[in-house]
Amino acid sequence: MGNKKELSPEQHSALLGTLKSRFEKNRNRHIGLDWSNVQTKLEANPEKLWSLNEMERTGGEPDVVSHDEKTGEYIFYDCVAESPKGRRSLCYDREALDSRKEFKPENSAIDMAAEMGIELLTEEQYRELQQLGKFDAKTSSWIITPSDIRKLGGAIFADFRYNNVFIYHNGASSYYAVRGFRGSLRV
Questions:
Q1: Bridge partners (DSSP) listed for residue 143
Q2: 101 C-beta neighbours (distance < 10 Å), count
Q3: Whole-angstrom distance, CA of residue 106 vs CA of residue 12
Q4: Phi/psi of residue 158, each to 5°?
Q5: What b/e readout covers 136-152, taking b as 16+ CB neighbours within 10 angstroms?
Q6: Are strands 62-67 and 74-78 parallel, antiparallel or unpaired?
Q7: 19, 46, 111, 132: most buried by Cβ count inside 10 Å?
Q8: 114 in helix, strand or coil?
Q9: Over its length of 187 residues, how does the chain's per-residue pLDDT go in tens digits?
């Protein structure tokens, strides 16, 4: 297995089992979709399966949240109740990480997402996710920041409090034990 972005047969089988079980347990997230079609798509895209495994490995509990009729792609989001534990205490991006003189976090949300082959949720996607359940009631998640905010040194994050989604700002170089990021993947 020279390619690090390839799962072993055991990992492949275990991940598909986990994803199928989650899919069946949470049908409200993907009404009208059939697992066999999702699995066929996953089997044809092993690099995407690797990315889903990274989402799972870092605590994201990825699940199908929609199907793009135009492209035929299934869209996965991290659906764990609180921001994924394996992706917390990260500043926003590489520029923010490099700007820290001391107490640097291990990585940035944007870099880690790229390494995993996924993207941070946009504000719109985050709001869509919240229609499927209550997420980030105790944590928060970095979301894609508009360039005009980022140019000024800021970044945005979201959470769910008081039965509402809140979008906040912070310095992009900040990081907290209860802030991570949620990803999306199109397969």
A1: 156
A2: 7
A3: 28
A4: -135, 160
A5: beebbbbbbbeeeebee
A6: antiparallel
A7: 19
A8: helix
A9: 445 788 999 999 999 999 999 999 999 999 999 999 999 999 999 999 999 999 999 999 999 999 999 999 999 999 999 999 999 999 999 999 999 988 989 999 999 999 999 999 999 999 999 999 999 999 999 999 999 999 999 999 999 999 999 999 999 999 999 999 999 999 9
